[in-house]
Amino acid sequence: MRKRARADKNYKFTKKRHSGPGTAAFLFSFAPLLMFGYAVWLSYTRGGQAPEQTGCIGIAAVLAACVTLKVSIQEARKENVMKRVPVAGAVMSVLMLLGWTAVYVVGWIGI
After folding, report:
1. What digits encode the pLDDT tens for the residues 13-70?
2. Distance of alpha carbon 94 from alpha carbon 69, whole angstroms
3. What is d(CA 88, CA 25) in angstroms, rounded to the nearest whole number?
4. Which of 17, 53, 67, 74 has the least CB density, counted as fewest CB within 10 Å?
5. How far is Cα 93 from Cα 97, in angstroms, rounded to an integer?
6. 54: burial class by Cβ within 10 Å (0-12, 13-18, 19+)?
């Protein structure tokens, strides 16, 4: 007896394509992480005496995370676009927002 060929293979032909702004938002979502690394390095090299610089870097990182989150969500809602890259950018942006929020809360509380 011959086995019947499966109709559903692991591939699918589609006209969906990657979104340019969604890809850019995904790549730009790593900016807050890089800014965090720079803020830690700056604070370490100055012996913890760089509050103004690290505060400005933190605000810029939060704004960058908000912008990338907004663009990622807009691109994920579009039709005929592959959703993985914009969704990954949105997840990364949310994680960066949570991380920077934790940094600010710890700074305000003084732990």
Report:
1. 667 676 787 888 888 888 988 998 998 899 889 988 888 888 899 899 999 999 999 9
2. 7
3. 9
4. 17
5. 6
6. buried
- pTM for the model: 0.74
User: What distance in Å separates the CA atoms of residue 101 and residue 109, rounded to the nearest whole number?
Assistant: 12
- Containing H/E element for 55? helix 51-76
Q: Is 69 exposed, middle or buried (0-12, 13-18, 19+ CB in 10 A)?
A: buried
- How far is the C-alpha of 35 from the C-alpha of 29, rounded, in Å? 11
Closest CA to 70 of 39, 24, 33, 103: 24
Distances in whole angstroms, Cα of residue 4 to Cα of each of 7, 8, 11, 66: 9, 12, 18, 51
